[in-house]
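Researcher: Sequence recovery benchmark, item below. Answer with residues only.
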């Protein structure tokens, strides 16, 4: 009986950090069972790079969106470009979109405008969203309650149990990756242990959010196998069960 396949629900494989050895990075991921990677865009300009990666590697699927940390380059016309891109190549989701209250110089009103407008694109296209929600879960949830969309993933979730439950009620899954593997992340590890397993999807956010065992080194999608093992250890269950259930969760929420 073959082992269940891993799905990395958030991987920036198009990033410059992978330019020198991207083929090898993809092969290492395949070697440990990562059969699918979701590659989200972050600006209008990088639609081209995401598209190139997803055409080159069959297991890579695109998400189109504009990230809140790049509001300095977003323009109103890019929203129309995003709609056109969705029509040209239907993605698995609209993303990476959302809000970021960690970086103080990011104008909140501008962030919120682009977030809300992209939620409307997701609604109109009947697509889920990949949410960047750093220190902004309540503000993210407020807008989700205004627009009825198909759900999605709260990427790199680090909120409270109450916020987690709010996402789940709206049809979302919660993305868990390298952050919960650090022993000092006590609140996040408690959530990883106590949340229903059908609430969780796995991700790496490569090349960022490295797991504890690689420290400050570049993260890559092959680390997802050990992330799955870590989640299984925390929950006291079999790794294959984690891989099977989180994979089913990802397929359900993303329509794979």
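Model:
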């Amino acid at each position: 009986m073959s082992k269940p396949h891993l799905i990395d629900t958030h991987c920036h494989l198009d990033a410059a950090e992978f330019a020198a050895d991207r083929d090898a990075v993809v092969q290492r991921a395949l070697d440990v069972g990562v059969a699918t990677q979701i590659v989200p865009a972050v600006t209008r300009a990088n639609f081209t790079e995401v598209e190139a990666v997803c055409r080159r590697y069959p297991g890579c699927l695109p998400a189109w969106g504009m990230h809140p940390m790049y509001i300095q380059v977003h323009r109103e016309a890019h929203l129309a470009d995003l709609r056109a891109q969705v029509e040209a190549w239907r993605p698995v989701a609209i993303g990476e979109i959302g809000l970021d209250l960690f970086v103080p110089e990011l104008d909140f009103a501008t962030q919120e405008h682009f977030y809300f407008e992209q939620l409307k694109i997701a609604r109109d296209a009947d697509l889920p969203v990949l949410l960047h929600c750093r220190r902004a879960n309540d503000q993210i949830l407020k807008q989700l309650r205004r627009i009825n969309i198909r759900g999605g993933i709260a990427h790199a979730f680090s909120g409270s149990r109450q916020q987690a439950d709010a996402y789940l009620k709206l049809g979302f899954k919660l993305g868990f990756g390298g952050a919960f593997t650090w022993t000092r992340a006590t609140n996040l590890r408690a959530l990883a242990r106590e949340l229903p397993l059908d609430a969780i999807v796995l991700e790496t956010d490569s090349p960022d959010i490295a797991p504890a065992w690689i420290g400050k080194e570049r993260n890559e999608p092959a680390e997802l196998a050990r992330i799955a093992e870590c989640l299984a250890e925390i929950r006291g269950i079999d790794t294959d069960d984690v891989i099977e259930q989180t994979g089913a969760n990802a397929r359900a929420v993303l329509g794979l």
